[in-house]
Amino acid sequence: MTDIYDALKQKASALMSEHGLMNETVTVKARALSVEEAIGNPEDDDFPIQKGKERLMQADIRGSFGQAFTDQFGDYEGTLESIITAPLTNNYRRAIFVAAMNAALRHLGRIDGTVHCKDEEPKTCAEALAEHIASRYGEVKIAQVGLQPRMVESLSARFPVRVLDMDPDNIGSKKYGAEIESPDNTSAAVDWADLLVVTGTTIVNGTLPAFVGDKPVIFYGTTIAGAAHLMGWERFCAKST
């Protein structure tokens, strides 16, 4: 894990220094968004944020927003330099770093799609993801990391799917024909799959390195926007703004 985060910090620091954002005082505010602010009012009620398991942190740099899902949330204000150089000791610190990096790269025009889609757009995005996978990868076995319900619903209708999730309330249940498995099964699921579809939240909870290897990976969501850009990872996020 250390190597990936060190690489991200180095790349972010170099880019921010190049554009003079490390040395000037840049205020970054992050707060936990309400459910309605984060995802609007979708007809379904099975998203993790609706169950109070996660919150969406949002950083603001000169009107450019960056977000990060996390289960450890709270307010923060500081400079980019202080955020990039701080030890990433827990999910809260990683969420601050990730949200701030997303906002900074958005401010520089390097990325877009850093604000989560709302209402019925997650369903539309999931349908588009299934089409994207079919056209680019063909008939593949998919290990999905993170129970994004609309994606499980859409992907399991077209592909063999195994789903890994950290929420003990989900593990062992069946969603849209797919059994939700424990992270203890990560190695087996990765070995079985042809393609990994991985939530960007893994960069905040520290599990991401387990999925970066020989298998092709599609990361999804707003959280991983900046890291995917800096590291050259594939990201799918069709309806974010």
- Spans of at least 5 consecutive residues whose pLDDT stays below 50 are none
What spatial order of strands do you see in the largest sheet? 7-8-6-5-9-10-11
Beta-sheet strand percentage?
15-25%
Q: How far apart are the termini? A: 29 Å
Radius of gyration equals: 17 Å
Oligomeric organization of the protein chains: single chain
Overall shape: it is globular
Number of helices: 9
List the secondary-structure elements in sequence, H or E: HEHEEEHHHEHEEEHEHEHE
Helix/strand structural class: alpha/beta
The profile of the biggest β sheet is:
7 strands, mixed
Q: How confident overall, as mean pLDDT? A: 89
Q: List how many beta strands DSSP finds.
A: 11
| Helix content percent band | 25-40%
Would you give an account of this structure?
The protein is of the alpha/beta class and 241 residues long. It has helices at 2-18, 35-39, 80-85, 91-107, 121-137, 149-156, 186-192, 202-205, 225-231; strands spanning 28-33, 55-61, 64-70, 76-78, 142-145, 161-164, 174-175, 178-181, 195-199, 217-220, 235-236. It has a 7-stranded mixed beta sheet. A 4-stranded antiparallel beta sheet has the order 3-2-1-4. The two termini are 29 Å apart. The model has no long low-confidence stretch (mean pLDDT 89).
Features of the shown structure:
241 residues; seven-stranded mixed sheet; 9 helices; 37% helix
Topology:
Blueprint: H1 2-18, E1 28-33, H2 35-39, E2 55-61, E3 64-70, E4 76-78, H3 80-85, H4 91-107, H5 121-137, E5 142-145, H6 149-156, E6 161-164, E7 174-175, E8 178-181, H7 186-192, E9 195-199, H8 202-205, E10 217-220, H9 225-231, E11 235-236
Parallel strand pairs: 5-6, 5-9, 6-8, 9-10, 10-11
Antiparallel strand pairs: 1-2, 1-4, 2-3, 7-8
Helix pairs in contact: 5-6
